[in-house]
Each structure stands twice: as structure tokens, then as C-alpha cells.
Amino acid sequence: MNWLWTIIGLLALGLGFLGMFLPVLPTTPFWLLAAFSLMRGSKRLYNWAMSIRSFNEVVTNFQIYRAIPKRIKIVSITTLWITIIISCCIVAKLWLVVLLLFIAICVTFHILSFRTLTEEERIALRKRKETEDNDSAKIA
User: Fold this and answer.
1) Of 39, 48, 91, 130, which one has the fewest beta carbons inside 10 Å?
2) pTM (whole model) above 0.85
């Protein structure tokens, strides 16, 4: 059963990375699924994934605060709408334009439905990470 969790985790990790570049594909849900799956499938791969700074930030933000940083919300929604508008200009079929706009609206509401991570929470996470890094350096 561990191999199944590992496969699901690696697929979710890959889809999350694609989501960084494809605005309609969400990063956070896939990375949360990846963290959940890899914890059950392979501690080694989970630790490796958590060593990736952007992955670690997203997972830790959600594990502790269930929130998304303001900058990430702004960049995500802006990139989403720029890409959707360009796509709508290229596509010739009305039903496809309507579908793209519907998806963009849904993804926008999904992103905005999460609490915004405050600056104080971000600072606390950084301090926590620095403390963990210092503690692990002392052990090594």
C-alpha cells in the first residue's frame, strides 16, 4: 500500500509544480495532497519534498494557519485572468469562452475563499523555520 501512496504523492507533487506555471491548474491543493500521500508512502520522499522551499512554505502555511499569503493570491489571480483573457481572444467558439470564464471565476472564488496569511504569521513561520534549521545544524 505504501507504493500507492508514494505514486499518488509524486503525481500530485508534479501537478502542483505544473500549477505554478499553468494558472488554471491549482498548486496548493495538489501540494497538500502530495504532503499527505508522501507522509504515508515514503518518509524519505516526504522529507525531500519538504526540503523544497516553495513546497515547504505552502504546506506549512496550510498546516499551521490554513491561509495563503497576500502576494500569492495577487499573483495567482492576476496570472489566471491574463491567461484566460488571452485564451478567450484566441478561441473562436463561444461555448469555450464561456467555459474558460466560468473556470476562471470558480478558481478566483476558490483562492479568495482562503484566509490571507498576515505578516505576523509569516514572520512567526520564518522564525520557526530558522529555529528548526539551527536545531538540526546542532544535531548534525
Assistant:
1) 130
2) no
The per-residue DSSP string of 7-70 comes to HHHHHHHHHHHHHTT-TTS-SHHHHHHHHHHHHHH-HHHHHHHHTSHHHHHHHHHHHHH-EEEH
| pLDDT at site 136 | 66
pLDDT digits (tens, 9 = 90+) for 10-56: 999 999 999 888 766 778 788 889 999 999 999 999 999 999 988 98
Structural domain total, the chain: 1
* Residue 67 backbone dihedrals phi, psi, to 5 degrees: -140, 160
- Provide, for the chain, the percentages of residues in helix, strand and coil under a 3-state DSSP scheme, each rounded to the nearest 5: 80, 5, 15
Residues 6+ apart with CB under 8 A from 69: 61, 116, 117, 122
| Residue 116, phi-psi category: left (phi > 0), alpha (psi -120 to 50), beta (remainder) | beta
Owning domain of residue 135: 2-139
Amino acid making up residue 97: V
pLDDT at 130: 75
